[in-house]
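Hello K.,

You asked for the raw outputs rather than the summary table, so here they are, unedited. I folded two proteins back to back in the same session to keep the settings identical. This is the first:
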Amino acid sequence: MKLLFITDNFPPEVNAPATRTFEHCKEWIEKGVEVTVVTCAPNFPKGKVYEGYKNKLVQTEYIEGIKVIRVWSYITANEGFFKRVLDFLSFSVMAFWVCLFKKTDLIIATSPQFFTTWAAAGLSFIKRKPWVFELRDIWPESIKAVGAISGDSKIFKTLEKIELFLYKRSSLIVSVTESFKKNLIERGVPSEKIEVVRNGANLQRFKPVPKNKALVEKFGFENKFVVGYIGTHGMAHKLDFIVNAWKNMDESFHLLFMGDGAEKPKLVSLTKELGIRNITFLSSVPKDEVPDLLSVIDVALVPLKKSPLFKTVIPSKIFENAAMQIPILLGVEGESAGIVKKYNAGLCFEPENTQDFLDKVNLLKNDKVLFNALKEGGSKLAIDFDRKIMAAKMFDYLRRLIK
């Protein structure tokens, strides 16, 4: 079997789409599948090409058996709607032309961004091969939710029509949440063409480990209760709310932000403006260093902006932290809150509710019985969302589609 996978993100980038795609492809290769990934030069989230790479017209490398073709794209930081659209469109066009000359049995395109699916739809039509829409985000609704575009604009309405057209043109939709599937069905997409494969964690990489003493000493975390946010600092995550709330915490607590993104400079400035001393900002680290960094935090913070749309998402941070038996402090409503509560893997606070957030942080620090129970719940959650299981589940859908 030959698979052609189009994605805007891939290692050495460490965001959720890159990690999911890599780990799924790696599992499929072990089943004897020939996988070719078409992506761009690694640049997320700063919009700067990683050291050791160039934004060339076409370049090829192999990563753990996966053939990776990187194409030129217009690269920009995650700032400004139109620049980002130009980034997405340029990659989509280049990916289309490169894939046009590649043999395959099946084409997969992942969102966000959903311009990758434009390329897949065109290739499917020309090659007469099935294509799969891997739905990781309801786009363009998600950019409306963070205020980047008006829902009344002609651009939004046009993009929404294209979105629905692509759902209906695809051979199969693989959604990462049940809520996304429900959303599509309510908008007229046949339920029989939608399958759900949630995110998960690589249990070989993410597992309980003692705190890294060198890092604890380096950051001055001795005798501190550390709440950590590890990931992209974007508009959707509403981290300014977290900083504003944190000014009420005494210095026995410490807040760690690790990652990059468009909102990070504003967060650093806000922290200085408020005179908060118990917040540390770190840049992104390579994928292999993430478990060590996670080991120094006591609680994993997973917040999103308060929006009906975000009730449908499941942040991938939940699974990796649960696998390391780090209790989750979840500021997201809906399906993800249901998972955390079902497994007793963490506490949930109402998004953007300062008092609820502070109460839950204090409870996690002071109730040791609860804290240990949440660690055990995280272990059970991780077992059910082992990435190997999720990859095998998706592979069965792909194989069935080809047959």
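The second followed immediately with the same parameters:
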Amino acid sequence: MNDALENLKVRGLFAQCSDEKELSSLMNREPVTFYIGVDPTGPSVHIGHMVPFFAFRHLMDAGHRGIALMGAGTARIGDPSGKTETRKMLSYEQLDKNAASILAQISNFVGIDGVRAITANNKDWLASLNYIDFLREIGVHFSVNRMLTFEAYKIRLETGLSFIEFNYQLLQSYDFLELYRRYGCRLQIGGDDQWGNIVAGVDLIRRVERADAYALTFPLVANADGTKMGKTEKGALFLDPSLTTPYEFFQYWRNIQDADIRRFLLMFTFLPVGEIDKITEAGKNPNEGKERLAWEITALIHGKGEADKAMSGARAAFGGEGDKSAMPQAKLSRAKFEAGYNVVELFCDAGLAPTKSEARRLVEQGGAFVSAPGKASGGELSAVSDVAAIIGAEYLDGEGELTLRAGKKRYCVVSANS
């Protein structure tokens, strides 16, 4: 077994391979060029998108060459895989803008250097395709009967599959063929929901070029309890700090279940396996492992400075030590406190509840906590269960601040200095 593939297996980054024995043999003989594609359907990737890019870096470190393919061409029609309904169509201008934003995120993470890691955009060859020529040269190699056996299409047939989406597999397969012709790319990697599309590309290269190519997929990651990994109360765990702050990003990993610590350290950090074994050995405090995981992955995505700041903020929130300036902040009117701030409005205005009805429910269910009068830092927060409760100016400390908590994990430091 090739060492790079074995490493992916050890780290939980291996689900299916089209020909593991032959791929392993090829990787032992020579560096292999591989690619991963990302469709820019939004301005930022989320942590689920990043699983293949962790594998990307492991393969790079083993001496292979990676291509990060921006799918500004394929995104024009939308991938039906894993979706129950047709994706919203975006303008070409918006797709290009999203692609530039995502490329910056990916480049920062994998270290695009133009040698071991390069980028491409399938818009460059898809946007100008002649449809008739494409059908004659590429479409002729696809069996509709076989395409309908793939899980992505079988699921969508139950809810409705548009003809434009049906073409997606042909375009993704053509990407693989084009990258083979341009860069000698022999391997496509991606999430396990992409298996059908990837093996279709492998088959297309075999038919058109009489050459061998390979597919390698990774598990779709779930938490130990089976819930979808990377989902927060605000939605997906995005890399863009304007969508998910570094503090919120850190807190997600700091609050994972004990059963997920070792698995996520293996998948989402580059710590040696031996060090991970020591961190997670029996008898160790699981909170130390969670904090290490949170710091490592936040440093990888946002930089060590932001990771340090997020850790300090988390310690201030949960242990009374650290820098509370790193915690989520809200600036509210001091006059409202002096007049008497209704607790429901306060939690809504501070951003700890999206609506007043949600804030009311939070209070009624005992999930709203407020720092003691004049003590924004340190000490236990007290639950407020009366929706008519008033939080007055006496709750503000000498700096005009108080601390709120929603549930067990979400904090906010409120500043009322104006």
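The longest strand covers residues 33-38.

Happy to rerun anything if the numbers look odd on your end.

Regards,
P.
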